[in-house]
Amino acid sequence: MRAVRLTGPGQIAVETVAMPEPGPGQVRLKLEGCGVCASNLGPWAGPEWMQFPTPPGDLGHEGWGVVDAVGEGVSEVRPGDRVAALSYNAYAEYDLADADKVVGLPPALDGQPFPGEPLGCAMNIFRRSDIRAGQTVAIIGIGFLGALLTKLASDAGARVIAISRRPFALALAKKMGAAETIPMEDHWVIMEEVRQMTGGVFCDRVIEAVGKQWPIDLAGELTRERGRLVIAGFHQDGPRQVNMQLWNWRGLDVINAHERDPAIYMQGIREAVDAVASGRLDPAPLYTHEYPLERLDEALNATRDRPDGFLKALVTYK
């Protein structure tokens, strides 16, 4: 099979390697594609702790495809089943996953890409945000995740204020149901606009979906007394400082909405399958860039540089 290795900072090689064999309790997937995650950008930059070359397919964890072999003791999944998987070497044509880490894709999703892990993350973040009808919710950062959360929150009856630096992302947020949009340009201007929009009380829920210091600072300022601040951005470039005096004074509930329990990951993926298959959620317009396996480097660079119109890159295997 073909598989990608990272050979150095910002460098890949596509190699032909042996196809993996499923062990007991495992399935092998013939992958159709894999989403590209911003969490890859740390290793892609080549930090001191990174070891090159990486194992074949390493870092790819948003794969979907068809089961083509099963290991001993596997009965709930069969060859031919189309699934989304939580696996970890999916920048390759085949990967292995534990049988309980795959979710079947119904016929309604035939032919559609389905990067299950980020879609499941959106569902899990939404659940932990505890968003209800009538609340005012600010979402800071309208990328793939922020756009999905805008749709979920607005459909739940919340009034969504979308804050993002890119004009096209703000236009997208409107399409996804945002009641108001604010360019992410000036800290104090944003605070004043939200103050006026909310009668001076600020927001019941604020979701930070960027992963940088300034959005964390802004998110705290925009959360009302006894409100909930949800950290959904992936903070991978070092420590953060927080305004603990403000957080204490306002009595904020602060939620780090990143899951580590695989069972919760799978719960989110199952909920995402149901939401997309039923038509409640349509992520298709958010898959803005598609690359073949041998151009994974371009996909990672686009994920890092975020050119105009970029939301989510998929790598697909023909």
Summarize the structure.
With 318 residues, this protein is an alpha/beta fold.
Write the layout of secondary structure elements.
Layout lengths: L1 E7 L2 E6 L9 E10 L5 H5 L17 E8 L11 E4 L8 E5 L3 E3 L11 H14 L6 E5 L3 H12 L3 E6 L2 H9 L4 E4 L3 H11 L5 E6 L4 H10 E9 L12 H7 L2 E4 L5 H16 L11 E4 L3 H10 L7 E4 L2
Parallel strand pairs: 8-9, 8-11, 9-10, 11-12, 12-13, 14-15
Antiparallel strand pairs: 1-2, 3-4, 3-6, 3-15, 4-5, 5-7
What count of helical segments does DSSP give?
9
Count of individual beta strands: 15
Helicity range of the residues?
A: 25-40%
Which structural class matches the secondary elements?
A: alpha/beta
What summary fits the major beta sheet? 7 strands, mixed
Beta-strand share of residues: 25-35%
- The 3D shape can be described as globular
Kindly report how far apart the N and C termini lie. Answer: 12 Å
Give Rg in angstroms: 20 Å
Query: Regions with pLDDT < 50 over 5+ consecutive residues?
Result: none
- Give the SSE order as H and E letters: EEEHEEEEHEHEHEHEHEHEHEHE
Mean pLDDT: 97
